Amino acid sequence: MILISDSLIHEEAGLVIEKLRNAFDEMIVYKDLKKSSFLSALGLPSFLRDWLLKRFANADGVFDAEELASFVHRFLPRKEEWTAIKSRIVIEREQVKLLARISIDIDIKTGAVSFSLPDFGLMSKETMIEDHVWQDCKDELVAARETWGMVELGYRPPVGKSVQDKGKIKLVAFKSFCPYTIDLDYYKDARRDFTTEEWMDVLLGAVDYNPAGYASEEEKLTMLTRLLPFAEKKLNLIELAPKGTGKSYLFGRVSRFGWLASGGVMSRAKMFYDVARRQDGLVTNHDFVTLDEVQTITFPDVDEMRGALKSFCENGYCNIGTHRVDGDAGVILCGNIKKEVMDQDGYGNMFEELPKVFHESALIERFHGFIKGWNIPRMKEDLKVSGWAMNSEYFSTILHQLRDDLSYRAIVDEIVEVPEEADTRDTEAIKRIATAYMKLLFPHIRTAADVNVREFDRYCLRRAHRMRDTVKIQLGVLDIEYRGKDVPKLRLREI
After folding, report:
1. How far is it between the farthest Cα atoms of the chain?
2. For residue 203, what are the CA distances in angstroms to 210, 271, 398?
3. Of 63, 75, 74, the residue nearest 38 (C-alpha)
4. How distant is the alpha carbon of residue 199 from its chain centre?
5. Does the domain at residues 79-176 carry the CATH identifier 2.40.50?
6. Distance, C-alpha 414 to centroid of its chain
7. For position 34, what pLDDT does the model report?
8. Residues sharing a CB contact under 8 Å with residue 489, sequence separation 6 or more, in sequence order
9. In this predicted structure, what is the pLDDT of residue 179?
10. What is the pLDDT of residues 94-117, one digit of tens each?
């Protein structure tokens, strides 16, 4: 056994931080989740917390807690305060500023532009945007289906008796949440300054974890595997893990582009399309939709949900009545697992306690890979980041933009050789996972010639094989048709 001294560990960590500061000077913040109970008490998502830290902290990462708390109280109200805010806007005729999530609706028939604030239940039929405001802010407002920013709200009183002339809350001004320009090429090139081991530590810090708290590379990589749907479109994963490994935190608090649904009822209308309201569901508005605590989720119509899931997970679309639902979201199932099943390392029946909707092999086959969550340590104090790290908001935006970069998949297609008899679904699953790993771990790769074959095989292709293999084993448990069928062995071509 090789023993590494604490001083050497600290020295290596210091070198990584120095590289990080040199490469991402404006995109790093000082995170101390061990001591900042104040920030934890606010219950803010990571991307919003890091934005605040960047705004209020000095060059040494020190911030004035009173000043920050005052800002949060003033501009980040709780949902239960919305009635009082409406009173200020509508009754007192104040103009009120909020830091909020906003989405835009354009009426095709009239050309009228309105907005909604989903977190407060303010719907587009209750709002309006005047032409001059729209012209000033439209580029930022339509950059995504939803965006965060500082919204200033006012009131336009009724001007007539028709429905169109009723009083409405109006958008007075808008300033984008993102305080910097995302340069994807710069991010890619900056990766070249780090070794693969160093880069894994950088990524862990970006999502609020302390790399020194992990006992092995396997633990780090399994944790980072959760990020694959952040960077790759239509990547469907299943993770079963012991309690307390941070599933809910990573999928629900790190990125503003994803959605976490934990327990309760999940209908086809909410997930895909509400026919009565003519409203698109979660999969059309987010990069990924995570069904957390999936054992406790109730699906009102099993057949209806299963049919929609099978079509969407296979094709990225499904038909609800006469309406076609299109989306790029990955679907992620997260749940807990019994120790006796966990000890079988993927060979026991892991889906026995999942809802009935997932007891069909044809649906499970459409999930590309399985994350063995039991390889991730239970959350403890030494796993909380404490020091300089990449801004979570910046990092999650980078991953969001990487979803549109098709060059990585082209490289994977070029360097990976597929056997003639290989099953198409297995092949696609392995390639999609390997592509996501490349985006995450090796974003600096621009051509096949840039690929370190040994590292790609180790960190991307073999891991993708193993993730698909676990799905294949479970298919055999569910359905005798799949028993004894192996995942095809994709190999690397000589470059």
Report:
1. 82
2. 10, 30, 12
3. 63
4. 19
5. yes
6. 28
7. 66
8. 419, 465
9. 58
10. 999 999 989 999 988 888 999 999
Among 431, 438, 376, smallest CA distance to 204 is for 376
Rounded to two decimals, the pTM is 0.88
Q: Which of 308, 268, 260, 325 is nearest to 287 (CA)?
A: 260
Q: Is the pLDDT of residue 290 over 90?
A: yes
Residue 14 has pLDDT above 80, yes or no: no
Confidence of residue 398 (pLDDT cuts 50, 70, 90): very high
Report, in this order, helix, strand and coil percent for the chain, each rounded to 5: 45, 20, 30
Beta bridge partners of 491: 417
Q: Tell me whether domains 79-176 and 216-376+405-495 share a fold.
A: no
Q: Among 2-16, 164-178, 448-462, which is the least confidently predicted range?
A: 2-16
Paired residues of 317 in beta bridges = 326
CA dihedral in degrees (345, 200, 250, 439; nearest 10)?
Answer: -90
pLDDT of residue 3: 41
Q: Domain segments of the chain: what residues?
A: 79-176, 216-376+405-495
Q: Helix, strand, or coil here: 135?
A: helix
Mean pLDDT of 219-238: 98
Q: How far apart are the first and last CA of the chain?
A: 37
* CATH number, domain 216-376+405-495, options 1.20.120, 3.40.50, 3.30.300, 2.60.40: 3.40.50
Helices (H), 184-338: 184-190, 196-206, 217-225, 228-231, 247-253, 268-271, 302-315
Q: Is 121 left (phi over 0), alpha (psi -120 to 50) or beta?
A: left
